[in-house]
Write a structure and sequence with these properties.
- The chain has 185 residues and is α/β, with parallel strands linked by helices.
- It has a five-stranded parallel β-sheet with strand order 2-3-1-4-5, sandwiched between helices.
- Helix 1 crosses helix 7 and helix 3 packs parallel to helix 4.
- It starts with 11 loop residues before the first strand and ends with a helix.
- It is built from seven helices and five strands, in the order βαβααβαβααβα.
- The protein has a single domain, classed as Rossmann fold.
- It is globular and about 50 Å long.
């Protein structure tokens, strides 16, 4: 998609953060599909996929989790500065790491995908919460490692109370207004 001047529109990064099972990837995929259907250049980055394929060297210590977020943020920055709308779904448990990425990228939208821990545990398709509760898995965000919720996200989706459609509509309305306001910038 190009602007009326023939230049690529400014890219931006949409960062979905929340507990495992909150619905980050579900919302990312649905928003991505909606934006692509409208002709936007979109790329989705999933924290689990990137960790599995690109940086298997990282563990789950705080230092490694922060480095994981820095690396995802670096890729998102490269894409967004080239006119791509980048959607990132990553737990990103620590506020300071998210703030660091926000400062690097600049045009950054934080979406807190908020679901209570008990709901996330019910949705747990991979059995990770069960393993964390039984002690098979340690350092699991929300169980024995903290999740620092955003203090001032641009949007918050309560996936225990909103349908996927309602959350996606809320996000796309916000994005279209944001993109319209930056089109001339």
């Amino acid at each position: 998609m190009t602007t009326s001047h023939g230049a690529r529109p400014r890219g931006l990064t949409i960062w979905f953060t929340g507990l495992s099972g909150a619905g980050k990837t579900t919302l990312n995929d649905a928003v991505s599909e909606s934006l692509r259907a409208k002709g936007y250049a979109v790329e989705s980055l999933d924290g689990d996929v990137l960790r599995h394929n690109l940086w298997k060297d990282l563990g789950f210590s705080k230092q490694d989790r922060d480095e994981n977020i820095r690396r995802i943020g670096f890729v998102a920055h490269l894409l967004s500065k080239n006119g791509i709308i980048v959607l990132v779904s990553a737990i990103s448990p620590y506020r300071a790491a998210r703030d660091e990425v926000r400062a690097r990228i600049g045009d950054f939208i934080e979406i807190y995908v908020n679901a209570p821990l008990n709901i996330c545990e019910q949705r747990d398709r991979k059995g990770l919460y069960r393993k964390a509760r039984s002690g098979e898995l340690t350092g699991f965000t929300g169980v024995d490692d903290p999740y620092e919720a955003p203090l001032h996200p641009e949007l918050e989706c309560h996936t225990d109370r909103e349908t996927v459609t309602e959350s996606v509509e809320k996000i796309t309305r916000y994005l279209e207004a944001r993109l319209a306001s930056t089109a001339g910038a």
